[in-house]
């Protein structure tokens, strides 16, 4: 693959990454809790990109495109998971206060944030269809193989991770700057509400 093709693909991935979506709001919610949680969620999303790259290379994504029932199942699962994350966010909004060292709290573990980012991406069939539709446009005819596709998946994961980490840092800095528990809880609940609405919207399109 040429450097121009790789840069072009990376630029496209960046444009898609900065477009607000489930991963962005999920990372924002965890970033409001702590930087480590936000970064973990971003890492999970990046791993999800590698999963879909592998799925394209193995033909699984093409199966989703041709099988209406399989696509339906994955889409419903993704919508329910987003709705679950949104509802859990409301219940855990108090964690934004307890996670603040100045208030005597203990920062939350990063495991749940990593899993949330991973499952949010893996259960989003639109990511798989993106890889299926876009990746072949950047593949040279003489180098269509698992390794080449995974290279593009790695680029997408790295670009998405970098952008989401910036979102995490920005959210964390905003919390540190404001230092107002009511405001941070409001922001967390807002991002949780958006996640829930995205889940409801996903489920509504399956009806």
Automatic annotation (TrEMBL):
A Pfam family it matches: LysE
Keyword GTP-binding: no
Major location (coarse): membrane
Cell compartment(s), UniProt: Cell membrane
UniProt membrane topology term: Multi-pass membrane protein
Keyword terms of this UniProt record: Cell membrane, Membrane, Transmembrane, Transmembrane helix
Keyword Cell membrane appears in the UniProt entry: yes
Entry's transmembrane regions: 41-63, 70-90, 143-166
Xref: InterPro entries: LeuE-type (IPR001123)
Protein name listed in UniProt: LysE family translocator
């Amino acid at each position: 693959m040429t450097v121009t093709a790789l840069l072009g693909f990376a630029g496209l991935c960046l444009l898609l990454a900065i477009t607000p979506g489930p991963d962005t709001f999920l990372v924002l919610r965890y970033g409001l809790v702590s930087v480590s949680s936000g970064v973990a969620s971003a890492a999970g999303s990046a791993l999800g990109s590698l999963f879909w790259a592998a799925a394209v290379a193995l033909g699984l994504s093409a199966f989703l495109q041709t099988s209406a029932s399989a696509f339906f199942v994955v889409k419903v699962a993704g919508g329910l998971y987003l709705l679950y994350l949104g509802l859990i966010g409301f219940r855990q909004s108090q964690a934004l206060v307890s996670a603040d060292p100045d208030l005597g709290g203990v920062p939350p573990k990063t495991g749940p944030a990593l899993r949330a980012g991973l499952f949010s991406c893996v259960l989003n069939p639109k990511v798989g269809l993106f890889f299926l539709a876009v990746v072949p446009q950047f593949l040279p005819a003489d180098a269509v193989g698992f390794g080449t596709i995974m290279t593009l998946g790695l680029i997408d994961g790295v670009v998405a991770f970098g952008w989401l980490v910036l979102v995490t840092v920005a959210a964390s800095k905003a919390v540190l700057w404001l230092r107002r528990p009511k405001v941070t809880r409001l922001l967390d609940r807002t991002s949780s509400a958006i996640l829930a609405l995205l889940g409801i919207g996903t489920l509504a399109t399956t009806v």
